[in-house]
């Protein structure tokens, strides 16, 4: 029993402690509260897995609540994308909620605060208010409007709601403490005027509540027991509790906010503002570009929900922000795809091989396994003929003994096929090798059981039959930034570190079994890496994205 308790993360310890101190499991309710102002990224995956994971652990409901209080930046497209991503990760929410569901209740509570002398309308400029805030060691200065009468505040707030004032001219502020050591407690803004149509309420409202006023009260309305957020909100907890103090009923459950560390991923950015910048400046082709750290981008690239959940489970929940190497995420997708991805053959940098002693016009269909990791995956047939493609880098005219691929006078086995020997090669006028002439041993066919088929050769190559090869567009994706932490340089813009080689588009030649491949299908191209069919693919043109190579090549580059 003690071992099980020790294995809990500190968030789970908080829940367990509350259960010991009077909470019942029926009291537990969690929520994931994204703002629909962009697509979810890998950093959000930790929060999603934490909250929905707690729901599964304690058999407790989890709400999906959209913090939609800023119509200037929020869109229905983002709502739809967030729902799609959460479902794809494998989670189901109990109820779908919106902060906008509570606009009337929040407004009514704001009226009560005004009546109690705890909120007032301020009509100073944002610059004037900022100047009055003071510093962490120096008290702020009270607004000249701080002690308006209740009647005047009620009238002005109603006029704000009616749309009589321009944006930026009037705000509603909580009257707390301009000398507080917590700068957030120095009369924070509760409402601002925005003449923008909301994606759900249209133009019903001209005032919109601020995050701090909305968040805790929404938790309370929904009777969320635990409100988990990232460390940058730690200083907001005092304000969260002050706002709750103004409205809570002692007979109802009071939510509690607790914080955990944000997880940043190397060689990318996980700020929605910066991700939007990449989209708007066309550095990438959209929020779901496979180079993006968005969940939609990872899905399009070929990542599996299991690999992302395993990654999140490995990095855990911590109390201190840190940078996670993207190679750990890549490790998890390799590990999962190795188990589930069918093996196929494709050649991305073709060199023609002619087997001179193989009959012209003859085609032979060879059996090959679909996945050596999964015996139940069965076999398929691939065509073998006189003319084949192999990779350019798999042949050298001359090579030392450590080169175990094809060289003049040397032998290799063709995967699931025959042993071939390179006899000669042809070059173009620039000296580039354009064709290799080989002979094959007719008795060396893989799996035939002959003495020749059991003969050991050190190299095995993948290949495709020229006559049967499918042409496909292959998008070779690499890391979007050359620097591991591109947005932490004080003297440089993160855009300076964009990797100019993050995408290379080539033509690949694939075995014909892939003619039926559909968008989202994942494969291992043998000896090359893991690839996924892109949604751009059609019956007329196959398009594949490289998810990840078979090995971490960046580790070698960085070690040098």
UniProtKB/TrEMBL annotation:
GO terms for cellular component: cytosol. A motif ('HIGH' region) lies at residues 34-44. Gene3D superfamilies: Glutamyl-trna Synthetase, Domain 2, Glutamyl-tRNA Synthetase, Domain 3, HUPs, Ribosomal Protein L25, Chain P. Pfam families: tRNA-synt_1c, tRNA-synt_1c_C, tRNA-synt_1c_C2. Residues 134-145 have a biased composition (Polar residues). Residues 28-338 form the Glutamyl/glutaminyl-tRNA synthetase class Ib catalytic domain. ATP binds at residues 35-37, 230, 270-272. Keywords: Aminoacyl-tRNA synthetase, ATP-binding, Cytoplasm, Ligase, Nucleotide-binding, Protein biosynthesis. Residues 341-441 form the Glutamyl/glutaminyl-tRNA synthetase class Ib anti-codon binding domain. Its EC number is 6.1.1.18. It comes from the Bacteria. L-glutamine binds at residues 67, 211. Monomer. NCBIfam families: glnS, PRK14703.1. Belongs to the class-I aminoacyl-tRNA synthetase family. This is Glutamine--tRNA ligase. It comes from Zobellia galactanivorans (strain DSM 12802 / CCUG 47099 / CIP 106680 / NCIMB 13871 / Dsij).
């Amino acid at each position: 029993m003690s071992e099980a308790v020790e294995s809990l993360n500190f968030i789970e310890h908080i829940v367990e402690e509350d259960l010991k101190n009077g909470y019942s499991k029926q009291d537990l309710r969690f929520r994931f509260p994204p703002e629909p102002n962009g697509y979810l990224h890998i950093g959000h995956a930790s929060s999603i897995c934490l909250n929905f994971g707690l729901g599964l652990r304690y058999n407790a409901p989890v709400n999906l609540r959209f913090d939609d209080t800023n119509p200037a930046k929020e869109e229905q497209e983002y709502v739809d994308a967030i729902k799609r991503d959460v479902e794809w990760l494998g989670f189901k929410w109990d109820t779908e909620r919106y902060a906008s569901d509570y606009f009337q209740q929040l407004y009514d509570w704001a009226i009560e605060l005004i009546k109690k002398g705890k909120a007032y309308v301020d009509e100073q400029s944002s610059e004037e208010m900022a100047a009055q805030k003071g510093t962490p060691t120096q008290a702020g200065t009270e607004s000249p409007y701080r002690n308006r009468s209740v009647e005047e505040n009620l009238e002005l707030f109603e006029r704000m709601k009616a749309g009589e004032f321009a944006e930026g001219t009037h705000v509603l502020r909580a009257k707390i403490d301009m000398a507080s050591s917590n700068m957030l407690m120095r009369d924070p803004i509760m409402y601002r005027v925005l003449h923008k149509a909301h994606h759900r309420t249209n133009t019903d409202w001209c005032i919109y509540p601020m995050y701090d006023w909305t968040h805790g009260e929404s938790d309370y309305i929904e009777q969320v027991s635990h409100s988990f957020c990232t460390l940058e909100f730690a200083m907001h907890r005092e304000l969260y509790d002050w706002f709750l103090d103004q409205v809570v009923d002692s007979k109802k459950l009071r939510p509690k906010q607790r914080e955990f560390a944000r997880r940043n991923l190397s060689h990318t950015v996980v700020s929605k503002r910066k991700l939007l910048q990449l989209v708007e400046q066309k550095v990438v082709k959209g929020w779901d570009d496979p180079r993006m750290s968005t969940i939609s981008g990872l899905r399009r690239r070929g990542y599996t929900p299991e690999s992302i959940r395993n990654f999140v489970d490995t990095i855990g929940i911590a109390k201190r922000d840190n940078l996670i190497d993207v190679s750990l995420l890549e490790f998890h997708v390799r590990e999962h795809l190795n188990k589930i991805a069918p093996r196929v053959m494709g050649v991305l940098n073709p060199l023609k091989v002619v087997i001179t002693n193989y009959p012209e016009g003859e085609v032979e269909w060879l059996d090959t396994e679909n996945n050596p990791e999964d015996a139940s995956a069965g076999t398929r047939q691939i065509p073998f003929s006189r003319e084949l493609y192999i990779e350019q880098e798999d042949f050298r005219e001359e090579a030392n003994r450590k080169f175990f691929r094809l060289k003049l006078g040397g032998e290799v086995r063709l995967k699931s096929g025959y042993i071939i020997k390179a006899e000669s090669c042809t070059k173009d006028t620039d000296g580039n090798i354009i064709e290799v002439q080989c002979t094959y041993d007719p008795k060396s066919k893989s799996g035939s059981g002959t003495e020749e088929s059991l003969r050991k050769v050190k190299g095995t190559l993948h290949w495709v039959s020229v006559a049967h090869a499918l042409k496909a567009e292959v998008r070779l994706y690499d890391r979007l930034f050359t620097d591991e932490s591109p947005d932490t340089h004080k003297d440089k813009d993160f855009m300076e570190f964009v990797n100019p080689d993050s995408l290379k588009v080539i033509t690949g030649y694939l075995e014909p079994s892939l003619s039926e491949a559909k968008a989202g299908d994942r494969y291992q191209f043998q000896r090359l890496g893991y690839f996924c069919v892109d949604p751009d693919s059609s019956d007329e043109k196959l398009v594949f994205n490289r998810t990840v190579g078979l090995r971490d090549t960046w580790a070698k580059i960085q070690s040098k």
